[in-house]
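Q: Hi! Curious about what (S)-benzoin forming benzil reductase looks like structurally. Here's the sequence.
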Amino acid sequence: METAIITGASKGLGAAVAKLFLESGIHVVGISRTDNTQLYSYAKENNADYQFISCDLSEKDAIEKVCQSLEEILFNDTLSKLYLINNAGLVDPIDRAENIEIDDLMKQIHVNTVTPMALTNYFLKKATEHNIQLLTAIVTSGAADKPKYGWSVYCSTKASMNMYTQTVAIEQAETEHAIIAFSPGVMDTGMQEIIRSSSQGAFKDVESFRALKENNQLRDADVIGGVLIDILMDDNIENGKIYDVREYI
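A: Let's find out. The predicted structure is below.
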């Protein structure tokens, strides 16, 4: 049995990837604040199983409880491969650095950096203990390599996840595990709505993002999700690579 753990599975890219895994007959555990009831239907139609765990990924205690619950649910004699998709992320607050409050700063760093690192660390350990292959994908961004006015936290957290991916890949080079980062480009998701709602004083490039929507230049999350699934299913997946969707579409 193969199972995928997906953070932020209720909408956007997370929901698209969950649907595609289910259509492939792979069981899915979605972790987010809200549920997506359509995923249960996809699971039933494809003889797969979808489970939802409600969790605020900005809370340390909540993440620890999720890990404990998942260990009890997943690690049994039937599990053969585990996918971990660290998809959840926050782009807000979008503002000049001096205007960002410490609570907002800590929340964004926790969701974008601490949570994917903590989940990956935990499931690397458990997968190794149970002799199960773990394939991990961390959703990153082009903002990891290109600073943007008003995105000091988002750019920094994504850059840190690229380095984390490459470092862990070195450590796992002699194992069957693999970890990649995946840059999905601009998609028609809720995150884009948040970006477009910014003021120009907080985010100088806001008009260019509004133009992407107006000119129908935002890619569909299902298409991007399909690219990620293909990468993960490829026997030649390159451990530690920062995959860019532009290489594929």
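A: A fun detail: The helical segments are 12-23, 38-45, 60-74, 102-129, 152-171, 190-196, 206-214, 221-233.
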